[in-house]
Amino acid sequence: LAESSGITRPKGYNVSFHCNPEMEKHHFGMTHPMKPWRLTLSKSLIYSYGMSFAMDNYLTRAATYEELASFHSTDYLDFLGTVLPEAVPRDLENQNPDLKYNLGGSDCPLFDGLYNYCSMSAGSALDAARKIVSKQSDIAIAWGGGLHHAKKAEASGFCYINDIVIAILELLRFYPRVLYIDIDVHHGDGVEEAFFSTDRVMTVSFHKYDPNNFFPGTGALDDNGPKSEHNPGAHHAVNVPLNDGITDEQYDMLFNNIVGKIVEKFRPSAIALQCGADSLAGDRLGRFNLQVQGHGACVEFCKRLNLPMILFGGGGYTPRNVARAWTYETSIAINSQDKISPILPEHAPWREQFRQDTLFPTLEQILGEPRQNRNPQKRLQEIIQHVTEQLRFVES
Ligand code: ZLS
Ligand code: CA
Ligand code: ZN
């Protein structure tokens, strides 16, 4: 397979791929938009292209309680580990769920094997971080991770355990500075908050921002970390609030400009890139007009920085497009983006799921009519201006 596709191991560096099929067997519920099955679809496309031959493939273990406790409170973990799906208490008067740690509502339901699911997602992220730290991998991929909303003692937005924070904490044991980049359509609030008071992690999130109508409602341009005099983490949170319909061209211009300037100033020693695929056009929850090429261009830009890097998954609610994006981005990691065929492999399982047989459907194929672009060029320039000024406060 690898030979027929022309895909070979990248020269001079190693890529590792971390996953566990056990994770994909979990269900949030029939109507819930988060479908762990999208991981199965992604992996099967990646394998159909023969990419596993170019990477070190690891079956992820579940993270231990102690590992989860490097970020989460033990009270929260104890509850998460023992609560039963049927246990959601209801308010006697209005019958609304009376939630502990925000668990059991419609966004973060309790389901069979929840603790297992969470510890495996964290396990893959931690394994990825350890491969980077030991220098066995230059790029480590954990598409099952990227659950950026989870807080120290609270579930939020489909996220229960913040695997990203746990992985970054591991990187910080060896690397002086870590840059976290988040291209999920939602604001990476959990990761931002976790590192609010340190100057060793800089976070940057690109997201749809509408404080009243789009989750989680945080991440305004001037939310840059608590600005108290004694907080070394002040100015180390960059937020890029966007509107519906942004295109590849605009997004990549912003991304290259902003991430380029951050890297110049902050000089990270490693990168954690959350590749949430709900920023793609046609996503069930997303609002942007990004195509697989534009989403992937962010990964390509980061790879060219030649820094150790973890690629995380994240959101992504139209499984066929999630699979396309993460497949293309895996090919970028192994430097095979020019070698893979834009036509999906003939033998790919679930080929009919993809509707079109291309890795790069056009906006018309995805949406019929593309979403109206509500990002005037002038606003994008204002954003760049703000970030440029913010970075003056960051010591290099
Ligand atoms: O970044 O908008 C909300 C919160 C609500 C509105 C929805 N109702 C159900 C709960 C209260 C204010 N939540 C968002 C969370 C988005 C999380 C994104 C995660 C990530 O991509 C990283 C993995 C939200 N948006 C859409 C829904 N929830 C949602 C849509 C459809 C359904 C089905 C299941 C449940 C109820 C019906 C649900 C949630
Ligand atoms: Ca984001
Ligand atoms: Zn999202």
Strand order of the largest sheet: 2-1-3-8-7-4-5-6
Q: What oligomerization state is this entry in?
A: single chain
Give the helix tally. Answer: 13
Q: How far apart lie the N and C ends?
A: 47 Å
Bound molecules: ligand ZLS, calcium ion, zinc ion
What is the chain-wise order of helices and strands?
HEHHEHHHEHEHEEHEHEHHH
What portion of residues is helical? 25-40%
> What is the count of β-strands?
8
What does the overall shape look like? globular
Query: Beta-strand percentage?
Result: 5-15%
In terms of per-residue confidence, which ranges show pLDDT below 50 for 5 or more consecutive residues?
none
Arithmetic mean of pLDDT? 96
Radius of gyration: 20 Å
Largest beta-sheet characterization: 8 strands, parallel
Classify the secondary structure makeup into a structural class.
Answer: alpha/beta
Structural summary, described in words:
With 396 residues, the chain is an alpha/beta fold. It is built from 13 helices and 8 strands. It has an 8-stranded parallel beta sheet with strand order 2-1-3-8-7-4-5-6, sandwiched between helices. Helix 3 (37-48) packs across helix 11 (319-333), helix 9 (248-266) runs parallel beside helix 13 and helix 10 (292-303) runs parallel beside helix 11 (319-333). It starts with a helix and ends in a 5-residue tail after the last helix. The structure holds ligand ZLS, calcium ion and zinc ion. Ligand ZLS is lined by residues 31-33, 106-107, 147-149, 157-159, 184, 186, 215, 276, 278, 285, 314-315.
